[in-house]
Amino acid sequence: MTVALVGAGPGDPGLLTRRGAELLQAADVVVFDRLIAPELLALAPEGAELIDVGKGPGQSGRQADINDLLVELGRAGRRVVRLKGGDPFVFGRGGEEAEALRRAGLDVEVVPGVSSAFAAPAVAGIPVTHRAVSTSVTVVTGHDGDPSLPGVDWDVLARLHGTLVVLMGMGAREAIVERLTAAGRSPDTPVAVVHWGTTEHQQVARTTLSRLADVDLAAPAVIVIGAVAGLDVTAAIAAVADA
């Protein structure tokens, strides 16, 4: 039996892929993360079992239980959709779930999703790459204080000239500023924080690296560090359209 790992996208339910919608509409059971839009769960058939396994901050230890649940459901012969925010393989621990399912002898279908790492900046008018400004982008997790995760080399990141996108970093933003500036990144580097990107609750704060710690926006948020954070191409497009 196949278990599908489906990326739900960055928040806006309209950004779910067609294949993701097809699998949801045929599911017997949907195992879903925190922050999944209710409109996506409503795609499941009437009578489908909906199981909330969302983890809050500091609850990463529950992952083994989620892996075991997916294996149990898959072995029971049910049509299982594991619905994950963003893309399953971009800091979504989808790789761990896929490995657990394969070890159990179950087939896995992976349906990519639109990652908030790129979608949230885009809807805020920030292209993470721009030929005249930045020709590279690096995506990292802000959870490098978790001893169970490989560390992030902030010294190396500080020396890169491209765009740095930090997911799950608001709780560690003071430490991020300290480490990047200590390694040579300019305190005046443009920074943007996109909170609840692509949704009706979206908020955008634009600042500099030295003042990132003063941004009072909670998770979920994407932090963009680099020259592109000073751009707002959608505002320019709107101005041309109004002309």
Structure overview:
With 243 residues, the chain is of the alpha/beta class. It is 28% helix and 21% strand. The protein has 8 helices and 10 strands. The protein has helices at residues 18-25, 38-41, 63-75, 94-103, 116-123, 154-159, 173-182, 233-242; strands spanning 2-7, 29-32, 49-52, 80-84, 107-111, 137-141, 163-167, 190-195, 203-208, 221-225. Strands 3-2-4-1-5 form a 5-stranded parallel sheet, sandwiched between helices. Helix 3 packs across helix 4. The longest helix is centred in the N-terminal third of the chain and has 13 residues, at 63-75. The mean pLDDT is 91.
List keywords for this structure.
single chain; 243 residues; alpha/beta; 5-stranded parallel beta sheet; 5-stranded mixed beta sheet; 8 helices; 10 strands; elongated
The global form is elongated
> What can be said about the biggest beta sheet?
5 strands, parallel
The number of helices is: 8
- Report the structural category: alpha/beta
Radius of gyration, in Å, reads 19 Å
Mean pLDDT rating: 91
How big a fraction of the residues is strand? 15-25%
- SSE arrangement, N to C: EHEHEHEHEHEHEHEEEH
Low-confidence stretches: none
**What is the number of strand segments?**
10
Q: Which percent bin holds the helix content?
A: 25-40%
State the end-to-end CA separation. Answer: 56 Å
Q: Reading side by side through the largest sheet, how are the strands ordered? A: 3-2-4-1-5
* Oligomer status: single chain
Task: Describe the SSE topology.
Layout lengths: L1 E6 L10 H8 L3 E4 L5 H4 L7 E4 L10 H13 L4 E5 L9 H10 L3 E5 L4 H8 L13 E5 L12 H6 L3 E5 L5 H10 L7 E6 L7 E6 L12 E5 L7 H10 L1
Parallel strand pairs: 1-4, 1-5, 2-3, 2-4, 6-7
Antiparallel strand pairs: 7-10, 8-9, 8-10
Helix pairs in contact: 3-4
